[in-house]
Amino acid sequence: MQFTELTAKEYKAYMANTPNMSHYFQMAENIANREEEKSPVVLLGVKENGKVIAASLFSKIPTFGSYMYYSNRGPVLDTTNTALIRFYFQSLDKYLKQHQCLSVKIDPYWIYRTYDKDVNPKTEGNDELVQLMQSLGYVHGGFTTGYSHTQVRWMSVLYLENETPQTLMKQFDSQRKRNIKKAQKFGVKVRLLQEEEIDIFLSLYRETEERTGFIARDDDYFRRFKRHYGSKAIMPLAYIDLDEHIADLTAEQLDLESRHDKMMLTDNKSDKQLKKLSELDEQLKKLQQNILDMNELKKTDGNILNLASGMFFENNFEINYFSGGSSNKYSQFMGPYAMHWFMINYCFEHHFNRYNFYGVSGDFTENGEDYGVYRFKRGFNAQIEELVGDFTKTINKPKETLYKTVTKAGIGVRKIKNIITKNK
């Protein structure tokens, strides 16, 4: 085996074809994205007989005259191959010592344990993997819960292998089934936004952010992803065309009126027929009011109402739901349900076996900060995956100790720069 820097072409080919679990942060499209954020990138991998068998994108974050190397969801390799993991990280140590590394951090996309939708364990914890990393000198960040300011450790995933849209729908809870059917009855449509339409997504995202009080990323963060990932960053928009919806309601009204009129022509109506007439009268009354309401909504808000949008990432491993937002004003149209059902069907059409709803906090009690989010995803029969967590290692111990000392002491920037110069 040979540890080496990979070319962008080699790296892209590996990530596009690897059967190993891989994340969109490790896609080749993220190279330019990281570099635009002023973080130099290095692609480090292992080859065997000329073939790449392990790879990772590392960002080099300038720190105290050196670099903190950070692999966001890497390396991507066969986690059952202990010899490969050991070789990768032992070789990485040697490389980092020669390339101005202060410390290194990884939060790999490696499974620790899986659970069913009710958080009953399905597999044993992969303690051997954690212990292997610790034996290589890495400090484990622990089995944390809650939302980290780095990366989530718990995910909610829908498994699609050997399923169809029909068999999958049967596994949803009654609320998910009902709300998807409601969206379909309303005539909610979904289309994919182009890069120049990203403001539509951002508007719905910011509205949700304001409503929930959860502040995440600025607009430029999302714009960069869409710009660099192109078609691999998918932005579905659930919307309703009120003209079409009103036309459908009007057609339904005419049908009910026709049925009502036919029943009225019957002499000596039975109790059953009278009850049915009463039900039709009530349906017509509600339908007429609905048509009036929709016409009024069209006057004030326009013909096209944007209901929900999201940003999803596509790699060769899965479809991953990154972020989304919806309009609370139009919540009756069930836009988020239409959007997710559209993207689940996108998975089937494009032969993906995983639909990743992505982050949950790991606190599945009713007091959990995201209990509502967990329940929403659980209703789709999404299973829970727990990742191994973060690992860090100091490479230049004397300089790392000095760095921590001066930052803790609050020494001024100019003095720090002088110390850095002396210790290069």
Automatic annotation (TrEMBL):
<comment type="similarity">
    <text>Belongs to the FemABX family.</text>
</comment>
<feature type="coiled-coil region">
    <location>
        <begin position="270"/>
        <end position="300"/>
    </location>
</feature>
<dbReference type="GO" id="GO:0016755">
    <property type="term" value="F:aminoacyltransferase activity"/>
</dbReference>
<keyword id="KW-0175">Coiled coil</keyword>
<protein>
    <submittedName>
        <fullName>Aminoacyltransferase</fullName>
    </submittedName>
</protein>
<dbReference type="GO" id="GO:0005737">
    <property type="term" value="C:cytoplasm"/>
</dbReference>
<dbReference type="InterPro" id="IPR003447">
    <property type="entry name" value="FEMABX"/>
</dbReference>
<dbReference type="InterPro" id="IPR016181">
    <property type="entry name" value="Acyl_CoA_acyltransferase"/>
</dbReference>
<dbReference type="GO" id="GO:0008360">
    <property type="term" value="P:regulation of cell shape"/>
</dbReference>
<keyword id="KW-0961">Cell wall biogenesis/degradation</keyword>
<dbReference type="GO" id="GO:0071555">
    <property type="term" value="P:cell wall organization"/>
</dbReference>
<keyword id="KW-0963">Cytoplasm</keyword>
<keyword id="KW-0573">Peptidoglycan synthesis</keyword>
<keyword id="KW-0012">Acyltransferase</keyword>
<keyword id="KW-0808">Transferase</keyword>
<dbReference type="GO" id="GO:0009252">
    <property type="term" value="P:peptidoglycan biosynthetic process"/>
</dbReference>
<dbReference type="Pfam" id="PF02388">
    <property type="entry name" value="FemAB"/>
</dbReference>
<dbReference type="InterPro" id="IPR050644">
    <property type="entry name" value="PG_Glycine_Bridge_Synth"/>
</dbReference>
<keyword id="KW-0133">Cell shape</keyword>
